[in-house]
Specification:
It catalyses: Acts on substrates that are at least partially unfolded. The cleavage site P1 residue is normally between a pair of hydrophobic residues, such as Val-|-Val. GO terms for molecular function: hydrolase activity. It is found in: Periplasm. Belongs to the peptidase S1C family. Its EC number is 3.4.21.107. It is built from 11 helices and 26 strands. By secondary structure, the chain is of the alpha+beta class. It has 3 domains: 212 residues, Thrombin, subunit H; 104 residues, PDZ domain (Pdz3 Domain), CATH 2.30.42.10; 109 residues, Pdz3 Domain (Roll), CATH 2.30.42.10. The strands form 5 sheets. Strands 1-2-3-6-5-4 form a 6-stranded antiparallel beta barrel. A 6-stranded antiparallel beta barrel has the order 7-8-9-12-11-10. β4 and β5 form a beta hairpin. The chain is elongated.
């Protein structure tokens, strides 16, 4: 600050000197910014002030008080009673969280992110949710409902008067390059307004139902749950996430689109839980290696790794190894993944599903079921707790190095099956060595893994595996699809690139 003042003083002194020594024509000069007014871009207002003035009262600050059980790190030591821990027992501490939200009805319904009103740590419980209006009036809010899968929550306050509110707009009409405005409480700075453009739509960040609007309007910690407005003042998104190596804004923020949020909010306001469609399949994206191994275009469809017995997909005849390319007329691609499309289908509906099996296109009809609780789903999902394919490395001497896949294998025998602890009816070949310099080695294939099929053909010997490798190479493909079984896990399909000769 001292340095800044010193510069200011020097500039003022310099200005004085110039005023003394310049000619009398100085009086004819005007300031560079005299009478200027920037022209607005086409379609944008000259100022956002009028719009923001109307919208801001409907945007609120949301804070929580939480109680956290803190374990004593010194329990069982001579220091067990230090730092407020009595007799080495866990202690209760208070914590707070801060976020944003917006009022959607005159009687006080409020939308925010689920993570804003959820416990922030293991062992924590939320004791109170406080909503603060722009005029600093505070209300204790009740949690009406939440949907963790999409990170949406609905609160209710009991206001003393009719509340200012905003309504959802139509995010399906949002285009990359459109102007947007975000209002929220970043870093506890209430009523902060930022503006920018839509940078992308249908952006996924790894979640099952991700379909975010990406924006360069500044979004920071504390903006979560606040609204994203279009230039007509309609809410087209709920600000939810940022992508930032530093923890601050770097021009990449994400908002849940209103087309996804509005129906969920309506359901939660009624006190109901969100129900989603379900087929009962385990899927993988059709990335480059997987697409190459199947001879298909990448990112057009999703690959079925497994089918849950008795569910809609199983009853419709869908099998592991199929590629689903459309559901009920909606194309499956990175912008519209299979889970998201199926989730939005009415439960009990009969939907046509177009799939590719062994290169042949076919259509089946499936009845959409109801998605079960997450803990039940986890029991069907592939377990990778302590044996991750990508983390295994092996040296593969001898015969493995001679093979185009870098894999040496022998036929399964009853004795080997018992030794491996796999189902007695398993058919295939067991890997005895893997060349670590190959794609098979890089992807974690190892001694003891069982190859059940290659190129969607059963294999019972190294010669049959080699024959399928040659068949794939003869079709101009550089990768082959293997179905691999590892003890304690369900079979999975794994694309493996062949070694250049």
């Amino acid at each position: 600050m001292r340095y800044a003042y010193a510069i200011t003083g020097a500039l003022l002194l310099g200005g004085t000197a110039i005023a003394v020594t310049t000619s009398s024509n100085v009086g004819a000069q005007v300031a560079q910014n005299e009478g200027l007014q920037a022209a607005a871009p086409a379609g944008a207002p000259a100022s956002l002030a009028d719009m923001v003035e109307k919208l801001q009262p409907a945007v609120v600050n949301i804070s929580t008080k939480q109680r956290v059980q803190v374990q004593n790190p010194f329990a069982g030591t001579p220091f067990g009673n230090l730092f407020g821990f009595g007799q080495g027992q866990p202690q209760t501490r208070q914590a707070q969280s801060l976020g944003s939200g917006f009022i959607i009805s005159a009687d006080g319904y409020i939308v925010t992110n689920n993570h804003v009103v959820s416990a922030g740590a293991e062992g924590a419980t939320v004791e109170q949710i406080t909503v603060t209006l722009t005029d600093r009036e505070e209300y204790t809010a009740k949690l009406v409902g939440r949907d963790a899968a999409t990170d949406i929550a609905v609160l209710k306050i009991e206001p003393k008067k009719a509340m200012p509110f905003v309504k959802f707009g139509d995010s399906t009409k949002a285009r990359v390059g459109d102007w947007v405005v975000a209002i929220g409480n970043p870093f506890a700075l209430s009523g902060t307004v930022t503006a920018g453009i839509i940078s992308a739509v249908h952006r996924g960040t790894g979640g099952t139902y991700d379909k975010f609007i990406q924006t360069d309007a500044s979004i920071n910690q504390g903006n979560s749950g606040g609204p994203m407005f279009d230039m007509r003042g309609n809410v087209i998104g709920i600000n939810s996430q940022i992508l930032s190596p530093s923890g601050g804004n770097v021009g990449i923020g994400f908002a849940i689109p209103s087309e996804q949020a509005a129906p969920i909010v309506e359901t939660l306001m009624k006190g109901q839980t969100v129900k989603r469609g379900y087929l009962g399949v385990q899927i993988s994206p059709l990335g480059e290696d997987l697409a190459e191994s199947l001879g298909l275009a990448k990112n057009s469809g999703e690959f079925i790794q497994g089918v849950e017995p008795g569910r809609g997909a199983d009853k419709a005849g869908i099998k592991a190894g199929d590629v689903i390319v459309s559901v009920n007329g909606q194309e499956v691609n990175p912008d519209q993944n299979l889970s998201s499309i199926v989730a939005n289908q009415p439960i009990g509906a009969k939907v046509p599903i177009v799939l590719i099996r062994n290169g042949q296109r076919m259509t089946v009809t499936a009845v959409v079921g109801e998605r079960p609780p997450e803990d039940e789903l986890n029991s069907f999902a592939q377990s990778q707790d302590d044996e991750d394919f990508s983390e295994q490395q092996q040296q593969a001497p001898g015969k493995a190095a001679e093979q185009s896949l870098g894999i040496a294998a022998i036929p399964l025998t009853p004795g080997i099956i018992r030794q491996l602890g796999i189902p007695t009816d398993t058919r295939g070949i067991v890997i005895t060595a893997v060349d670590g310099s190959t794609d098979a080695g890089a992807k974690g294939l190892r001694r003891g893994d069982v190859i059940m099929s290659a190129n969607n053909r059963p294999v019972t010997s190294q010669a049959e595996l080699d024959a399928q490798v040659k068949a794939v190479a003869g079709q101009g493909r550089n990768a082959i699809l293997l179905q691999v079984l590892r003890r304690g896990q369900p079979p999975i399909f794994l694309p493996v690139r062949m070694r250049d000769k």
